[in-house]
Amino acid sequence: MSDDTSFLSSARYGKDKVRVLRVVREGKWHHIVEYNVQALLEGDIETSYTEADNSVVVATDSIKNITYYIAKISPHILIPERFALHLGTHLVSKYPHIHKAFVTVEQLRWSRIPVSGEQGPTEHPHAFIRDGDEKRIVKVEVNASKGKDKIIASVTAGLSDLLVLKTTESAFTSFVRDKYTTLKEVDDRILSTSIDLSYTFSPVEIPKPTDADVEQFAVPAEITPGSVWDTSVPTNARKVTLDTFASDNSASVQATLYRMARLIIAQNAHVQTVSYALPNKHYIPVDMGYLGVENLVPAQAEVFMPIAAPSGLITATVSRK
After folding, report:
1. Fewer CB near the last or first residue (10 Å), C or N of the chain?
2. Could you read off the pLDDT of 41-61 as tens digits, one per residue?
3. What top-tier enzyme class does this entry carry (predicted)?
4. Which residues are annotated as a binding site for 5-hydroxyisourate?
5. What is 162-321's CATH topology?
6. Helix 253-267 and helix 232-247: axis angle, to 10°?
7. Other CB atoms closer than 10 Å to residue 213's CB: what's the count?
């Protein structure tokens, strides 16, 4: 086979599953974050693949060490969007031949332990509990392809594994019926899903670090509401998701999903797209007719069998006009 039959069309490498726990101390009041970090690089690295030339390779072990170092020095460590941007900006600024950095941060959910006090329960200043499987997700692309002084960043954020359930005000009727249909129509059912949400912001310009070691990272002095710098966006998006799920008299998962996404876009001026993935968590009423006990009619169904698989999966993306 001749050498002109193929070419390297893309290449990206880095470090995955870098686990970071950072403690930030404010006197006796401590904060913690736990992150799983992935940091990947693109740039003039072709010869490491095509010519076995390692002189262009920033070792993945170095990328791991840089991740820990930025986690140590960054004043933005408690905000995953800003930490990811700080890390990505440092990587593309430090190495002349690296043009893009792709940083994914998965934040595990820790909450303060409430303890008894003279005035009632209070949050403990340095004791925490792992608060479920929900994770906050941030994906950042830091692009210096047009120059180290013209860095542009794209950010997608959201959450995953947010498990929710409601016991009524959910129906599923009037769907297509044909010879393959065995599912019965129901006007009242359990609705449960494990929510994956992502929303993409408008791209932002990142100032070039001005220090010799390109370790500084500047956040705008004035924060534009609804932008990637607005720390209320994740809280509000989560609240919209939960409020809508709880209060919507759902005709279908699709209809509820659409209402959630539209509200997030309406409330955040710089969010361009919102995507949800909502897998059905099925709970099937147990048939007790053989015992003379009614447990299938929705108003009397009280004992259910959780079914893990197969499950429906409902996805959609809603975009700003």
Report:
1. C
2. 999 999 999 999 999 999 999
3. oxidoreductase
4. 60-61, 172, 189, 253-254, 280
5. Urate Oxidase (3.10.270)
6. 150
7. 10
